[in-house]
Amino acid sequence: MSAALRRLSLWFGLLGAGVALLTGFMTFFSVMLRALFQWPIPGDVELTQMGIALAISLCLPWCQSERAHILVDFFTQRSRESTVRRLDAIGSLALALMYALLAWRTSAGALAVREAGETTMIISLPVWWVYAALAPGLALSALLAGMQALQLGRQAPAGDAA
Question: Which residues neighbour 42 within 8 Å (Cβ) at sequence distance 6 or greater?
Answer without folding.
Answer: 122, 123
